[in-house]
Design a protein that fits this description.
The complex is a heterotrimer. By secondary structure, chain A is an alpha+beta fold. Chain A has one domain: Cytochrome Bc1 Complex, Chain D, domain 2. In chain A, 37% of the residues lie in helices and 12% in strands. Chain A is globular, with a radius of gyration of 17 Å. The N and C termini of chain A lie far apart (45 Å). Chain B is 77% helix and 0% strand. Chain B is an all-alpha fold. Chain B has a domain of 182 residues: Cytochrome C Oxidase, Chain A, CATH 1.20.210. Classes of the chains: A alpha+beta, B mainly alpha, C mainly alpha. Chains in contact: A-B, B-C.
Chain lengths: 179, 466, 97
């Protein structure tokens, strides 16, 4: 069993490294990210689209990597995983953040609420002052993120939304009720 | 009593104390779901949860370590080698736990820098403790492994049971090294994190509790060594045979290849089978002894262990493990329901059983090792746990249906599911049963302090013959 | 998968394992106490488990290979309690000798 696990580990780590077949490299944040149904695999997959600058800027691979490193450090230092889930892992008090970048609520609710021109700016504003922009009785506490830290987290979430998670979560953003 | 056994008792005191902290933190965590304005921006959900899950891990580890320190000198017929190191490190361990908890309560989190990682909060689930404390845990565990192996070496003796334990301790210790890194790539981070978490609770801890239960069966029912060791080998092979690649059930959705859905799902679905064997074994032993024993609380807690493990880990796990189901159940309170039941059944009940077993050997009236309080503790704790788990299951299924299967997993879907009457009622029920559990804890503590102590009764006055 | 089939399939899978557990417990108790009623009840539980296996195989939207796996494991569950009993008896008998 352990031998099989060792081989599968080598392959899995290769597939899931930044730039591997399941995980895009960090400069994917310069692109539009979509999520559509793949009929050959019969599940949703991320779609990396045309250029779409983040915070009005196009990042080099090194800049994007540094930004991700900071973003992950913020996520750990503020223990985000103890309220939220990432790929469904973590805590269940706050929503799952796997596809948070693609959540329609940013455009529909927070952009008007924060007076931001872009989704990314709305996310930054919210992350820096979540107690000022509540939308529900269950509120996110203020974790005293600086502006660079909030930008790093937003970039991290954009990169995460481009990861191929074998279709999790299913039909994100589409409501499917039975007839 | 050997020094190592006196240390075991100290570990049990620490373990039971942390069990209380875990329960209190759990109640607080549950309360936020009912009143989300509670302590807002003062002490929020994530800190209560950190205290709850970290004390869970530590109280169980302390229970395991204490149990080994108790059984080891009896197994080898001599005092543990280097016991003074373990005695010192016990106090260091306790002090570290207190410091980490105080920092979690007062400071809570730091900035995005290495100082936070080393001294405040690492923010990775179950291993949030800062790196300095993780170093401390490594030292304690290494000393523990040294104590066990050096004593076996010096005694020039090895039993099958001890051999399994020593072989198990090595990966258990090595896996903890994942408590240190900060890996930028979340897929890689979670890949290795699951090696620590799964290979602890679904592999090495299972073997460890198997060894402890084997020692306990020899003590509790006088079962022969050959029988418990043979059973232990079979159990270990089955648990590891299913559990090692059953690790794959955590690799469905984290950005790893699609073959994990088949491999992980298949081996994970096999995991209940050895647990069924353990239940049969437990009933066999109970039946063979016609439910008689000199230690009724330990006996009942051992039965609770076998059944709780089967239902909590086996039944609840199987309900949600197939990938087509897991796609919807993943990351909901359904997982919480399974986790609570499985941890309790597989480990909580076992550690309590061992504590009762050992206490009987230390009290001054071992033949009167019975009470009313243990029954209250047993009843309330298990009723409370089952009630909590039931509530969480309802909440989780509500989420799986309304948030994921129908709702599209957005924030709006999350809110809709969380505001659904079933979810809200389930959270109230969970809290109330949590209170029942807490009452059971108090009864347990009272009983552990008092059971088996002889009560001196004044001799009746002699009347002179008429 | 619709929400109704999600709910039904997961409940069936849980009940499937639970009835397997009931079979194991009742069978072992029945043989230990030489109680034919308990043994017959245990077989009824196993029959219930097989019915649940059939229900999952026939009615759930799981893929065919998973249904085959569940069917095979349903059969395997049938052997575990008597095989475990025989193993334990052999171990204890050998020890007594």
């Amino acid at each position: 069993m352990l031998v099989v696990l060792a081989f599968l580990t080598i392959d899995s780590l290769d597939a899931s490294r930044a730039g591997g077949r399941h995980v895009p490299n960090y400069d994917v944040i310069n692109h539009h990210i979509g999520y559509t149904y793949d009929w050959s695999r019969r599940l949703e997959v991320p779609v990396i689209g045309p250029t779409e600058p983040l915070f009005g800027k196009t990042y080099t691979l090194q800049e994007a990597t540094d930004l991700m490193s900071l973003g992950k450090l913020v996520i750990q230092s503020r223990a985000c995983m103890d309220c939220h889930t990432f790929f469904g892992n973590g805590a269940y008090y706050g929503p799952d953040l796997t596809k948070a970048w693609l959540d329609p609520a940013w455009n529909q609710i927070w952009m008007p609420m924060t007076g931001s021109k872009t989704r990314a700016e709305a996310m930054v504003e919210f992350l820096m002052h979540p107690d000022q922009y509540p939308t529900w009785t269950r509120r996110m506490p203020n974790l005293h993120l600086t502006h660079p830290e909030a930008e790093a987290v937003v970039a991290y979430l954009k990169w995460m939304s481009a990861i191929d998670t074998n279709g999790f979560p299913a039909h994100f953003g589409r409501i499917e009720t039975q007839n | 009593m050997y020094r190592s056994q006196k240390l075991a008792l100290r570990y049990f005191v620490a373990a039971i104390t942390l069990f209380g902290v875990m329960t209190a933190a759990g109640l607080l965590s549950a309360l936020y779901y009912i009143d989300s304005s509670l302590l807002y921006n003062v002490f929020d959900f994530q800190m209560a949860k950190i205290l709850h899950i970290d004390t869970l891990v530590i109280w169980l580890l302390m229970g395991f370590i204490g149990a080994v320190y108790w059984f080891l000198p009896k197994e080898l017929g001599r005092e543990v080698v280097g016991i003074w190191i373990a005695e010192v490190l016990f106090y260091v361990f306790c002090a570290a736990v207190v410091i980490v908890a105080v920092v979690f309560i007062v400071v809570q989190y730091g900035g995005s820098n290495e100082f936070s990682m080393w001294f405040i909060n690492q923010g990775r689930k179950y291993v949030e403790a800062p790196r300095w404390a993780a170093v401390g845990v490594v030292v304690v565990v290494l000393a523990f492994v040294f104590n066990v192996t050096a004593t076996a070496w010096r005694a020039r003796k090895m039993t099958g049971l001890l051999g399994v334990l020593i072989l198990d301790l090595v990966p258990l210790a090595v896996l903890y090294l994942d408590a240190f890194p900060k890996i930028t790539n979340m897929s890689h981070d979670l890949y290795w994190w699951w090696w620590l978490v799964h290979m602890w609770v679904e592999a090495t801890w299972e073997v460890l509790i198997g060894c402890l239960m084997a020692w306990s069966l020899m003590e509790l029912m006088g079962t022969s060594r050959r029988i418990v060791e043979t059973w232990l080998y079979i159990e270990v092979m089955l648990v590891l045979g299913t559990g090692i690649l059953g690790l794959g059930h955590h690799y469905f959705w984290i950005g790893t290849p699609q073959y994990w859905l088949s491999i992980g799902g298949f081996f994970s679905a096999l995991e209940p089978l050895p647990l069924l064997g353990m239940v049969v074994h437990a009933v066999y032993d109970a039946g063979a002894n016609h439910m008689k024993t000199t230690n009724r609380p330990a006996f009942y807690w051992v039965l609770a262990e076998a059944f709780g493990n089967f239902i909590g880990a086996g039944v609840f796990g199987f309900m949600m493990t197939l990938p087509q189901i897991n796609l919807y159940s993943h990351g909901t309170q359904w997982t919480v329901s399974h986790g609570h039941f499985a941890f309790w059944g597989a480990y909580g009940c076992g550690v309590i059983a061992i504590m009762y077993l050992i206490l009987q050997r230390t009290r001054n009236a071992p033949e009167h090792f019975d009470s009313r309080a243990w029954k209250w503790g047993f009843g309330l704790l298990n009723l409370g746990l089952v009630g909590m788990v039931g509530g969480l299951l309802i909440a989780g299924i509500t989420q799986a249906i309304y948030e994921r299967a129908e709702g599209g997993s957005t924030l709006q879907a999350f809110v809709v599911a969380s505001e659904h009457p079933w979810f809200r009622s389930a959270m109230y029920a969970r809290f109330i049963f949590g209170l029942v559990f807490a009452l059971g804890y108090l009864a347990l503590v009272y009983d552990l302090l008092t059971i088996g102590r002889r009560v001196t009764v004044a001799a009746p006055a002699q009347t002179a013959p008429a | 998968m619709t929400s109704a089939s999600l709910f039904a399939t997961s409940v069936a899978l849980g009940l499937l394992v639970l009835s397997g557990g009931a079979y194991g417990v009742l069978y072992t108790l029945g043989v230990a106490r030489s109680n034919p009623l308990l043994i017959r009840t245990s077989y009824a539980c196993y029959a219930g488990q097989l019915l649940l296996v059939l229900a999952v195989c026939w009615g759930s939207p799981l893929a065919s290979l998973w249904k085959l796996f569940i069917a095979v494991s349903g059969v395997a569950y049938g052997f575990i309690p008597p095989a475990t009993w025989r193993l334990l008896e052999t171990l204890h008998h050998n020890q007594a000798q």
